[in-house]
Amino acid sequence: MATIIETVTDLVSPVIPAPFELVDIEYEKMGGDYVLSILVDKPEGITVEDTAELTEIISPLLDTIQPDPFPERYFLEISSPGLERPLKTKESLTAAVGKYIHVSLYQAIDKVKIFEGDLLAFDGEELQLAYMDKTRQKTVTIPYKMVAKARLAVKF
């Protein structure tokens, strides 16, 4: 499936007009259907009209890919990344400094594989995160190579 995502990313990223930003592309089976999700954003957020405009640009392009990388029929979904925007690149983590994030790790640090807290700093190699451990505020340094997934999180 990675080749489908890579193929679509290579095709779509150059044609997404400013001020839009390509955030992520996902291809997965939901129920009995395959869904190609293209997540886009812009500084003031995206509207239904924006998604319609982008669909008109992207959908015909997908039909030009030869050979067809999609093993089955699929639905195209163009949408906002939402409040819990994925942070998949070093640039997106740098932009998230000062925000509340959720981080899943490949291996535990002090027996913990999931952290949620304020991203204090990111230097490209390590994240520094302030989080609550029961009633105590703690800070953890996480090597970037240990991050399996990161996203913005909503604090309750």
TrEMBL record:
Q: So where does this one cross the membrane?
A: none
Cite the Ribosome maturation factor RimP N-terminal domain residue spans from the record.
12-84
Biological process (GO) annotations?
ribosomal small subunit assembly; translation
Query: Keyword Cell membrane on this protein?
Result: no
UniProt-listed PANTHER family = RIBOSOME MATURATION FACTOR RIMP
Biological function: Required for maturation of 30S ribosomal subunits.
State the protein's name: Ribosome maturation factor RimP
